[in-house]
Automatic annotation (TrEMBL):
It comes from the Bacteria. Signal peptide: none annotated. The chain crosses the membrane at residues 7-31, 43-67, 79-101, 113-136, 148-170, 176-196, 217-238, 258-278, 299-318, 338-355, 362-381, 387-408. It comes from Dyella halodurans. It is a multi-pass membrane protein. The lineage of its organism: Bacteria, Pseudomonadati, Pseudomonadota, Gammaproteobacteria, Lysobacterales. PANTHER family: LIPID III FLIPPASE, PST FAMILY PREDICTED COLANIC ACID TRANSPORTER. Keywords: Cell membrane, Membrane, Transmembrane, Transmembrane helix. This is O-antigen translocase. Pfam families: Polysacc_synt (PF01943). It is found in: Cell membrane. The keyword Membrane applies.
Length: 424
């Protein structure tokens, strides 16, 4: 299956997820204004962190090894049993820790201890979220794009209904609660769809400890947790800095532009996640890898550039549609943000090579270095340029990350060429 076809199949599911996210933002913007949108961003960062921790961060590993072992029933059963053991154990530990520190987390992230009850609900939901992520990773590993799309569309539809209902009842708290409960609904949708798939076997739901498979998954867990942990933590630190320097109102403008980027880029990043990780994991020769990378750039770069240009031209209308007239100052931030989005996608295509080929140490080091450099650039640029400096820091950091990934990809592909020459 080509990247274009994978993108076609995922377009509907991505649209459903996008609509669900935009409904939340629009509702929060309408009844809580820029300050509410800023707090929404903080809570969603926490959800992202806990969702990855709850599953042990092995989603990428499950996708990679299911793609490799799907024709080897014995190794596949060992892998999935170990993955389920890993995910369930991690979800119980993270859920307990979140319950224990719920009041402190509410005060630190949202500045109000009354949100502690909401964080406790999120803690209890971790087990269901971990199981849902496991099922989605298995379906993705089998490259069952159509079934995966159906799960995401149905889950997003239920999420939208819950957000509308609870936000009308409980305002901001209701919208945040709906985000939590909506994550667990994916399990109710995903399990029966997976059960009916031609590759499902009851043995895939057996929990077992397998030292070899756990060790392999642990390497991916380390990479995934690093990449999932650092961005939300850094974004939390950036918001705290921006709140101190400019106030929650201006953080809302910055968050609004970031949400627009997340929304339209979701179509592209979903295609990369669903198609590229299992595809690159299954390719071991240089020529095929080069061909896949060329196809990706020929398809994805024109697409992201076109979308970014459309968002920039329609930025005033987009801001009014998705938020409200209170967010008009956000229009000044779109230009550098959209340039950074294009550079981000260009770097992502190459960075997936590190994940697919399990370059654990290099991946972790690079994530740490560029997370730190982004934070440093935010402090430096906002001191000189004001709020827009945070956007300049985003674009500059991804440019540096792109250069790094070009160097890594050339060295890896050059090594494959040398290996092929040695064994001719």
């Amino acid at each position: 299956m080509s990247i274009a076809r994978a993108s076609f199949y995922t377009a509907a599911s991505t649209g459903a997820r996008l609509l669900a996210g935009l409904v939340v933002v629009k509702l929060v913007a309408s009844f809580a204004g820029p300050e509410g949108v800023g707090k929404l961003g903080q809570f969603m960062s926490l959800m992202s962190l806990l969702a990855v921790f709850a599953g042990g961060g092995i989603g990428a590993g499950v996708v990679k090894y299911v793609a490799e072992y799907r024709d080897d029933a014995q190794r596949l059963a060992r892998l999935l049993g170990a993955a389920l053991w890993y995910a369930l154990g991690a979800s119980l530990v993270i859920g307990a820790a979140t319950l224990l520190f719920s009041t402190q987390m509410a005060q630190w992230l949202l500045g109000d201890a009354r949100y502690a009850a909401l964080i406790r609900v999120l803690a209890v939901a971790q087990l269901g979220i971990a199981l849902a992520n496991y099922i989605i990773a298995v379906i993705n590993g089998f490259m069952d794009v159509r079934r995966l799309a159906l799960v995401q569309i149905a889950g997003s539809a239920l999420n939208i209904a819950m957000v509308v209902w609870l936000s009308q009842w409980l305002s901001l708290e209701g919208a945040l609660l709906a985000l939590v409960l909506g994550q667990t609904l994916w399990l109710a949708v995903g399990l029966p769809m997976w059960w009916r798939s031609p590759y499902f076997k009851r043995s895939m739901l057996r929990v077992r400890f397998d030292r070899e498979m756990v060790t392999r998954l642990a390497a991916f867990s380390t990479m995934t947790l690093t990449s999932a942990l650092l961005p939300p933590l850094v974004n939390i630190a950036v918001r705290d800095h921006l709140v101190g320097a400019f106030g929650w109102q201006h953080v809302g403008y910055w968050q609004a532009v970031s949400k627009v980027s997340d929304a339209y880029l979701l179509f592209i990043t979903s295609a990369i996640n669903i198609y590229y990780l299992p595809k690159l994991a299954s390719i071991n020769d240089r020529a095929s890898l080069m061909l896949e990378l060329r196809h990706a750039y020929r398809f994805l770069l024109p697409l992201v550039m076109g979308l970014a240009l459309a968002v920039y031209v329609l930025r005033t209308w987009v801001t009014l549609l998705l938020f409200s007239g209170e967010f008009s100052q956000a229009n000044e931030l779109y230009g550098p943000q959209l340039v950074g989005d294009v550079i981000k996608i260009a770097s992502f295509v190459l960075s997936y090579l590190m994940l697919a080929k399990a370059m654990t140490r290099l991946f972790i080091i690079s994530e740490c270095v560029f997370a730190a450099s982004y934070l440093v650039l935010v402090y430096a640029f906002t001191a000189h340029f004001g709020l827009v400096g945070a956007i300049y820091a985003f674009s500059t950091n991804y440019f540096l990350y792109l250069v790094f990934n070009i160097v890594v990809a050339r060295r890896y592909l050059g090594g494959l060429e040398q290996w092929s020459a040695d064994y001719r």
